[in-house]
Amino acid sequence: MIGVLVSGQGTNLQALLDAGLPVVAVASNNTKAPALDRAARAGIEAGAFPTVEFDSRERRDEELAEWLAERGVELVVLAGFMQLLTAPFLERFPGRILNVHPSLLPAFPGAQAVEDALAHGVKVTGATVHFVDDGVDTGPIVLQEAVAVRNGDTAETLHGRIQEVEHRLLPAAVRLFLEGKLSSPVAHA
Ligand code: GAR
Fold first, then answer.
1. pLDDT band at 189 (very low <50, low <70, confident <90, very high)
2. Could you tell me the CATH number of the domain that includes residue 27?
3. How many A from CA of 20 to the centre of ligand 1?
4. Higher local confidence (pLDDT), 187 or 58
């Protein structure tokens, strides 16, 4: 069973739902994330865990991990979740967290991947699904696909084409994990 963490629109969450994958819980750091409405419309339990409501990021992550575990979550998918997870969360789901990122990692990690790729003038960028470790977008890569940059692309137009790829790649990677076809190469102390 899958728990999905979101911060924004939730189009990747929607792709997981449309693929019929067993999403049982959706959580966000952002109480106003439209992704939470998508979860509600799909009848999936949704929770908001804004960091301001907790003593520390670690405490928030402990409670978030506990909330997911109580709902039977075995795999956590970061689908546009824009915060870094701390050790208490990573230790609760060792090798069982996937992230989707809008670049060909290890190029352009971080929160501005599409803008950074455009600013660099690359001709090809893409989408990556990878296991999460304690770095910023550094974990072992599961699936990747290239997207060509076109003349006149803006961050919006390019991100739109990258997201079309993400919406295929992320459900495919999740399916591989659920079928036991992916090893979990991330170990946490
Ligand atoms: C996605 O494109 C995802 O790759 C990106 O945020 C977008 C969320 O869209 N994530 C990152 O940049 C993480 N570093 P969505 O909310 O519509 O799925």
1. very low
2. 3.40.50.170
3. 20
4. 58
Whether residue 80 has its Cβ less than 6 Å from ligand 1: yes
Answer whether residue 189 is part of any domain: no
* Residue among 52, 51, 54, 14 at smallest CA distance from 36: 14
- Going 90 to 91 to 95 to 97, the CA torsion angle's sign is negative
126 CB near ligand 1 (under 6 Å): no
Q: How many domains does the chain have?
A: 2
Instruction: Show the domain range for 44.
Output: 1-94
Taking 80 as the threshold, does the pLDDT of residue 184 lie above it?
no
Q: Would you place residue 188 in the very low, low, confident or very high pLDDT band (cuts 50, 70, 90)?
A: low
| CB of 60 sitting under 6 A from ligand 1 | no
